[in-house]
Design a protein that fits this description.
Elements (H helix, E strand, L loop, with lengths): L14 E3 L3 E5 L18 E5 L10 H5 L6 E3 L20 E3 L20 E3 L12 H4 L5 E3 L20 E3 L20 E3 L22 E3 L20 E3 L10 H4 L3 H22 L3 H7 L46 H4 L7 H4 L3
Parallel strand pairs: 2-3, 3-4, 4-5, 5-6, 6-7, 7-8, 8-9, 9-10, 10-11
Antiparallel strand pairs: 1-2
Length: about 350
């Protein structure tokens, strides 16, 4: 059945999408409160209340928008979201940026269809502890410009996540289990300034990562495991007091940086084997490893200090902390050497 557009008392024509239902647009109207709509809210799938002066959203209004898939309330004065937001079982896109939110209601975890959450420019001090256990369909999570000191441990269970933006917060660390985010392509934790002093080795297990921005933090050492990010295209590390790799290395070619990180992995790996359980065992098992290496691979004979130099491509150009491409680097080049155990034994790390 075709749903015809209706002119509301708000002076705007609701947009009709034959396939997805109606869009109720009340944006930019300087509203202090939401008038009672005269349309059937069960037909509405998209609501835009952005750029108003709203301090709250009526519980009764949200509870009647049962078919809503997109809600945009950015740039208001909202201090909280209604508990009835948990009734929005079909909600896929939520934009609450530019408000005064300090937290999400407990019922928020019931929005299990949610795929995109934009909560930038609020006053959030924490995210729901269960966000990664309940909102498992999230692919894009943007929480920049808040007051977050940590991300919930459950964040590492957002296995569909492709983009995580947590810049301009007060993060002191990234959550454990980061290696579970196997589809993550973009990670931005820049401008946490003095609060963020290190990155976990698990960053090197993010096999799908293409862009990593850690600029303007207080990081003195890059995890050598970053050398295993074969799909990484952009790395921004400027504004950090980096000691390792040293500046003279960072200012040289990508090849030099890659070799430096590779050597660091080998050094750390040897120590890890003596200590037993560590990040190193997980690194060996991560998806960045190429299982095509055979025991009789003749290229092993050309290795030097544990690095299979014949595997490296020649990459011209200089790099800086502002932006560089790591290129292709297979961790199999890092762990096989004629002086070490056989590949069969090496697989037992």
């Amino acid at each position: 059945m075709r749903i015809e557009g209706k002119r509301t008392r708000f002076g705007k024509q609701t947009e009709v999408d034959e396939k997805h239902g109606e869009k109720l647009d009340m944006s930019g109207m300087s509203l202090d409160s939401i008038p009672n709509p005269i349309i059937n809210l069960s037909l509405v799938t998209k609501v835009d209340l952005s750029n108003n002066n709203l301090e709250s959203i009526p519980e009764s209004l949200t509870a009647r928008l049962l078919n809503m898939v997109a809600l945009d309330v950015h740039s208001n004065q909202l201090k909280s979201l209604p508990n009835s937001i948990g009734c929005l079982s079909k909600l896929k896109v939520l934009n609450v940026s530019g408000n005064l939110l300090e937290s999400f209601p407990k019922t928020f975890e019931n929005c299990r269809a949610l795929e995109e959450l934009n909560a930038n420019f609020n006053k959030l001090t924490r995210l729901p502890d269960t966000i990664g256990f309940e909102l498992v369909n999230i692919t894009r999570l943007s929480v920049n410009s808040n007051k977050l000191s940590t991300l919930p441990y459950s964040t590492s269970h957002l296995t569909a996540l492709r983009s995580l933006d947590a810049r301009l917060n007060c993060l002191t660390a990234l959550p454990e289990g980061l290696e579970n985010l196997t589809t993550l392509e973009t990670l931005n934790v820049s401008q946490n300034f003095r609060h963020l002093t290190s990155l976990p080795f698990a960053v090197g297990l993010l096999g799908s990562l293409k862009e990593l921005d850690i600029s303007y933090n207080n990081i003195s050492e890059l995890p050598p495991s970053i050398g295993c990010l074969t799909k990484l295209e952009k790395l921004n590390a400027e504004g950090n007091p980096l000691v390792c790799p040293p500046r003279d290395v960072m200012e040289q070619s990508i090849q030099v940086i890659r070799e430096y990180l590779a050597a660091r992995i080998n050094e750390t790996g040897n120590g890890s084997k003596r200590r037993g359980n560590s990040w190193f065992g997980r690194l060996v098992k991560c998806t960045t490893f190429n299982s095509g290496m055979t025991q009789n691979d003749s290229r092993i004979r050309h290795s030097y200090d544990g690095l299979l130099m014949s595997h490296y491509r020649s990459i011209d150009g200089l790099t800086s902390p502002r932006h560089f491409t790591l290129g292709m680097l297979s961790p199999r080049r890092l762990f096989f050497s004629p002086k070490r155990e056989s590949p069969r034994k090496s697989a037992a790390f």
